[in-house]
TrEMBL record:
<dbReference type="InterPro" id="IPR036830">
    <property type="entry name" value="PP_kinase_middle_dom_sf"/>
</dbReference>
<dbReference type="InterPro" id="IPR041108">
    <property type="entry name" value="PP_kinase_C_1"/>
</dbReference>
<keyword id="KW-0460">Magnesium</keyword>
<feature type="domain" description="Polyphosphate kinase C-terminal">
    <location>
        <begin position="529"/>
        <end position="694"/>
    </location>
</feature>
<feature type="binding site">
    <location>
        <position position="494"/>
    </location>
    <ligand>
        <name>ATP</name>
    </ligand>
</feature>
<keyword id="KW-0808">Transferase</keyword>
<feature type="binding site">
    <location>
        <position position="431"/>
    </location>
    <ligand>
        <name>Mg(2+)</name>
    </ligand>
</feature>
<feature type="binding site">
    <location>
        <position position="590"/>
    </location>
    <ligand>
        <name>ATP</name>
    </ligand>
</feature>
<comment type="similarity">
    <text>Belongs to the polyphosphate kinase 1 (PPK1) family.</text>
</comment>
<feature type="domain" description="Polyphosphate kinase N-terminal">
    <location>
        <begin position="34"/>
        <end position="140"/>
    </location>
</feature>
<feature type="domain" description="Polyphosphate kinase middle">
    <location>
        <begin position="152"/>
        <end position="325"/>
    </location>
</feature>
<dbReference type="InterPro" id="IPR024953">
    <property type="entry name" value="PP_kinase_middle"/>
</dbReference>
<feature type="binding site">
    <location>
        <position position="401"/>
    </location>
    <ligand>
        <name>Mg(2+)</name>
    </ligand>
</feature>
<dbReference type="GO" id="GO:0006799">
    <property type="term" value="P:polyphosphate biosynthetic process"/>
</dbReference>
<dbReference type="GO" id="GO:0046872">
    <property type="term" value="F:metal ion binding"/>
</dbReference>
<dbReference type="InterPro" id="IPR036832">
    <property type="entry name" value="PPK_N_dom_sf"/>
</dbReference>
<feature type="binding site">
    <location>
        <position position="72"/>
    </location>
    <ligand>
        <name>ATP</name>
    </ligand>
</feature>
Length: 719
């Protein structure tokens, strides 16, 4: 739909008039209508923890969810908590949609995070660890071992661990050492046998070694690396008495801040900022619950950290190490293997010949659902065929996150080396992938790819590929617009959609958009795309408002939105207004949600669900009943300020009837009371509903989708 057509269809040709209408209706909404985004995020991670606590799940998957919880929480502190602290300390305005002082928000975060981390530790020690033991996998302590076991492990320690350990003393000649972020450490107190004086030393647990050391024997047993090291400290401090030792772990501010308007070279500025990030100020100190006050006081003083930022937990610290247990060869303790099927349109023919991706797309738009349908035989095959096809003249692609050895990057290199015009818009500011993105951006440049880094002040988060092919003397566009990154590894665990199309409208939209991203064009019109930051917010507000008008006119009206995060106040207010007009609003969110659903006079018609499972729900869907003529978009944008105002995002309208039905059916299943999910209440509490009134398990959406997609088969021709 052309943006002008969209405007006309809503009856709002003047943007100022539309803004006034929105402001007037917002004024009628009550104060305190949003849930706190940071506490909502902690609630999301609690849902991850609830999966780890669920005895119905395979125990190695439960262990993996504990590791995911830990990894998630680390990033939350490194970015969100660090960002709040930085703004408070520098006097910057702190964005909050709940009307409370930032210092109170930090206190609430600290209290909730403390409770969750204690619960996390108990889930491991009291539930998952014993369940592993019942399944024949023991996580043991040094004191559990026989003398023979200890002797064998001492040999391992001497051969593989001792040579890489680096104890660092703290005394007048040795200042307190730098403690790297997220490192696991031992704080050690020793006594000098000659002088009787106590000294302090810090020992970093080597992160390159396996966190769990296998204990030889008939039964599968593992000992944590820090336990092995702690019981051989005498080898590191000969002639000294080991007085005490305790584990601790530090989290630092690792949020990257670059003033792009003030730098001449983005890459150099980013590299300098990444170096600075290593030395960011401490924001959380995790300590073993047996740490004495003398050691703790020393750490607090030297690290300049407050009591509120100390998290005293049962050992072991840093349960991210549980990711290592997933390598254990026990398929009976994991989810059943799932092999993605090839989308019907891209399946080989009767003679098993290699499919022609371009021919398949010319027949009609192709919607692919990962990881149920293969990324390798769709997106990857599309780019690889484009790189080799002599009729392809140009390839343009956005890259936000991808693996370093990615076949996607290699396809672009192959295309450039074959003489094609190749443009890669690399987002080097993708958080925690900055260094990796710089490396392969330079690799692309060396191969002759035109690499650009997007627009100043904006991250390019859209997922786009545009291929130009000459056919019969005419140039034809082949496009892919997705909801997820061009990353073969995460495509196997992230749920996403991608639309392939040979539509001239989409091709024209992408031509204009890539010109804007690589040059100086400022486009205001797109036909099948909604693009941030100029059009997406207002486009969605108009679409939601159109549903409100349809409801008031007695026409079919509903809004369905599937996103990772829903926190933007303008969008939420528009949904509240639509609800008050009688519009059925269904929100399917994985993570943060600031909506208060089911509140009388504000959101009676709003329902919010969350689904977590073996795959990370990552796709974004926006569906509108439109008076009986449904309109559905998929794309890259979440409902957050950064996505709508500070990123280049793109949604594409899905038009094929069968694909609209597929997306509608998926939403129906997700929102059904017979499907296992979490329900959000107006008080901000998420309630898990995984069993019916008789105690029987509810439907698993991901398992059901997996089964349904596997049953799709191309009919074989009969001879």
């Amino acid at each position: 739909m052309d943006q002008d057509v969209l405007d006309a269809g809503l009856g709002d040709s003047d943007d100022d008039d539309f803004d006034e209408i929105v402001e007037e209706s917002v004024a009628e909404l009550p104060e305190g209508r949003y849930l706190d985004r940071e506490l909502s995020w902690l609630s999301f991670n609690q849902r991850v923890l609830e999966l780890a606590e669920d005895p119905a799940l395979p125990v190695l998957e439960r262990s993996n969810f504990l590791a995911i919880f830990g990894s998630n929480l680390d990033e939350f502190f490194m970015v969100r908590v660090a960002g709040l602290k930085r703004r408070i300390m520098t006097g910057l305005a702190v964005p909050t949609n709940v009307g409370r002082a930032p210092i109170d928000v930090l206190a609430d975060i600290s209290a909730a995070a403390h409770a969750l981390q204690v619960r996390h530790a108990r889930a491991w020690n009291d539930h998952v660890k014993p369940a592993l033991s019942e399944s024949g996998i023991d996580i043991v302590s040094w004191d559990d071992l026989s003398d023979a076991d200890k002797g064998r492990l001492y040999g391992y320690f001497q051969a593989h661990v001792f040579p890489v350990l680096m104890p660092l003393a703290v005394d007048p000649a040795h200042p307190f050492p730098y403690i790297s972020g997220l490192s696991l450490n031992l704080a050690i107190r020793v006594r000098n046998a000659r002088t009787g004086r106590q000294e302090f030393a810090r020992l970093k647990v080597p992160p390159m070694l396996p966190r769990f050391v296998e204990v030889p024997g008939e039964r599968v047993r593992y000992l944590t690396l820090e336990d092995l090291i702690a019981n051989h400290l005498a080898d590191l401090f000969p002639g000294m008495e080991i007085v005490d030792h305790h584990a601790f772990r530090l989290t630092r501010n690792e949020d990257v801040v670059i003033e792009e308007d003030e730098t001449e070279n983005l890459i150099q500025a980013l590299e300098a900022e990444l170096m600075r990030r290593r030395f960011g100020p401490p924001i959380r100190l995790e300590i073993a619950d047996d740490m004495d006050e003398v050691t703790l006081d020393l750490l607090l003083r030297e690290l300049d950290i407050t009591e509120q930022e100390v998290y005293r937990l049962p050992a072991p610290l840093d349960l991210r190490g549980l990711f290592d247990l997933s390598k254990i060869d026990r398929p009976d303790l994991k989810y059943a293997p799932h092999v993605p099927t090839t989308a019907i349109a891209f399946q080989p023919g009767d003679n098993n010949e290699r499919p022609d991706i371009f021919a398949a797309i010319r027949k009609g738009d192709v919607l692919v659902h990962h990881p149920y349908e293969s990324f390798a035989t769709s997106v990857q095959a599309f780019l690889e065929q484009a790189a080799k096809d002599p009729q392809v003249l140009a390839i343009k692609q956005t890259l936000y996150r991808t693996s370093g050895d990615s076949p996607i990057v290699q396809a672009l290199i192959d295309a450039a080396e074959a003489g094609k015009q190749v443009l890669a818009l690399v987002e080097v500011k993708a958080r925690f992938d900055e260094a990796n993105n710089i490396i392969w951006a330079r690799k692309l440049e060396k191969a002759g790819v035109h690499v650009v880094y997007g627009l100043v002040g904006l991250k390019t988060h859209s997922k786009l590929v545009h291929v130009i092919r000459e056919e019969g003397g005419v140039l034809r566009s082949y496009s892919h617009v997705g909801t997820g990154n061009y990353n073969p590894k995460t495509s196997r665990i992230y749920e996403d959609f991608g639309l392939f199309t040979a539509s001239d409208e989409v091709g024209g939209d992408l031509t204009r958009l890539f010109n804007e991203l690589s040059g100086y064009a400022i486009e205001k019109k797109f036909k099948r795309l909604l693009v941030a930051p100029l059009h997406l917010r207002k486009g969605l507000l108009r679409l939601i408002d159109r549903e409100r008008r349809h409801a008031l006119a007695g026409k079919p009206a509903s809004v369905r939105i599937k996103v990772n995060s829903m926190v933007d106040e303008q969008i939420i207010d528009a949904l509240y207004q639509a609800s008050n007009a009688g519009v059925t609003v269904e929100v399917w969110v994985r993570g943060i949600c600031s909506i208060k659903p089911g509140v009388e006079g504000m959101s009676e018609n709003i329902t919010v669900r969350s689904i977590l499972g073996r795959y990370l729900e990552h796709s974004r869907i926006f569906a509108f009943a439109n008076g009986g003529d449904p309109q559905v978009y998929i794309g890259s944008a979440d409902m957050m300020h950064r996505n709508l105002d500070r990123r280049v995002e793109a949604l594409v309208r899905v038009t094929a009837p069968a694909q609209l039905t597929e997306l509608t059916d998926l939403f129906d299943l997700a929102m059904s009371e017979s499907t296992s999910s979490w329900w959000l209440g107006g008080d901000g509490v998420w309630t898990r509903r995984s069993r019916d009134a008789e105690g029987k398990p509810l439907l698993d959406l991901q398992e059901a989708t997996m089964t349904a997609v596997q049953k799709r088969r191309r009919p074989r021709a009969t001879r």
